[in-house]
Amino acid sequence: MPDQPTRLAPIMLRCETTVNGQTVTAQDTVSRHIWDECEEEYREYLRAHLRAKLGAFIMERLAPEVTVHEEGPVGEELWARLIDGHPTTED
């Protein structure tokens, strides 16, 4: 079939790390055409997205406890500094 264009396999992006002795992997596929035609900034976005996907999966599996710290009321001087955009600590 000489009239058909050559089809190239998609690009496979893979990211893995080891957590608590277990290897955890995330992967995505990207069209070869998109990969070949996109700017490097978009490729880096795809890589960052895959790392975020892996991180979310790890955090979901580990399910660390979330603690809530409720402090007492904020004093007027500190509140004024926060509102005015001043630092809350002295240099």
The fraction of residues assigned to DSSP E strands is 15-25%
Strand arrangement across the biggest beta sheet = 1-2
Overall 3D form? elongated
Written as H for each helix and E for each strand, in order along the chain, the element string is EEHHH
For the record, give the distance between the C-alpha atoms at the N and C termini, rounded to a whole number: 75 Å
Helix segment tally: 3
- Helicity range: 40-55%
Structural class: alpha+beta
Number of strands: 2
Q: Supply Rg.
A: 24 Å
Mean pLDDT: 85
Largest sheet descriptor? 2 strands, antiparallel
Spans where pLDDT lies below 50 across 5 or more residues: none
Write up this protein.
This protein has a two-stranded antiparallel sheet. The protein is elongated. It has 3 helices and 2 strands; from the N terminus they run E-E-H-H-H. It has 91 residues and is of the alpha+beta class. A hairpin with a 2-residue loop joins strand 1 and strand 2. The longest helix is centred in the middle third of the chain and has 23 residues.
Structural features:
91 residues; alpha+beta; two-stranded antiparallel ribbon; 2 strands; 20% strand; elongated
What is the topological layout?
Elements: E1 11-19, E2 22-30, H1 32-37, H2 40-62, H3 76-84
Antiparallel strand pairs: 1-2
